[in-house]
Amino acid sequence: MLLAYGLTTQSPETTIDDRLASGRPAAPAPFALSVLEPGDLGPVLERELGSQLDDRRLTLGELRGTPAVVNYWASWCVPCREEAPRLESAWRQARRGGVLFLGLNMQDITGDARGFLREFGVSYPTIRDPTDATARSWGATGIPETYFLSSGGEVVGHVIGVVSEDQLRTGVAAARSGRVVGAEGGGATTSAAALRRTRVCAGTSQYGAAMESNHPSGGLLRPAGFEDRMGHQTPAAPPRVYGRRPTPHA
């Protein structure tokens, strides 16, 4: 039984996991997002994708033809810290075989996100969505979540929560072959149902950067227990069991 704590709102989109459950690959929603860090692609992927990253913006369509591992994360997500070294190690192996790892940083402060990348020595490319729109369109309900895409641009695997070494090996092989391996749970995650939407007073994040947000709610979505410099704290939400889609709190 895996406990979760954390993020935004329940995603209404479950198409990807529904298709994977039936043994079929799924076409993810398109995106066009800014490049936070271009990373070090290595010689094989540099020939294929280097020019796409040069303009500091990346679309899903530009990945077509390249097997990919897409990992949703944020600097304030505690479980994301657990899997970061594992992802980096797997990436250093996979890029030699032409498999791209792509971090998708969401609902984060740019300085905090870059600090996380430096701390863990992340060398794969990272793109940024300041909202949770891309995650919701893919059916993600928490972070971290990892999707495995075939060279045809379809999702063939999905790990909900902290991804293991075995899950990474299986997912990378599936991305290369295009064979559907389905969706499964990983380790503890920051769940979408467990964090409340809240208006946080102006202050600093836990890493000291100034908070800014254009979120439609008018406030910043932060993890339960977050406290700004004025002493205002996001109310803690009860832990959720991950492994089924959580339901919103009243």
Write up this protein.
- The chain has helices at 15-21, 42-54, 78-94, 110-119, 133-138, 165-177; strands at residues 2-4, 32-37, 57-59, 68-73, 100-106, 126-129, 142-143, 145-149, 155-160, 182-185, 190-191, 240-242.
- The chain starts with a strand and ends in an 8-residue tail after the last strand.
- An 8-stranded mixed sheet has the order 3-2-6-5-4-8-9-10, sandwiched between helices.
- The protein is globular, with a radius of gyration of 17 Å.
- Mean pLDDT is 77; it is low at 1-13 and 191-250.
- The protein contains 6 helices and 12 strands.
Please outline what is shown here.
By secondary structure, the chain is an alpha/beta fold.
Query: How many helices in DSSP terms?
Result: 6
Radius of gyration: 17 Å
SS content category: alpha/beta
Q: What share of the residues lie within helices?
A: 25-40%
Give the number of DSSP strands. 12
- Taking the alpha carbons of the first and last residues, their distance comes to 24 Å
Largest sheet: 8 strands, mixed
Strand order of the largest sheet: 3-2-6-5-4-8-9-10
Outline, from the CA principal axes?
A: globular
Proportion of β residues? 15-25%
Low-confidence stretches: 1-13, 191-250
Please, what is the average pLDDT? 77
Order of helices and strands: EHEHEEHEHEHEEEHEEE
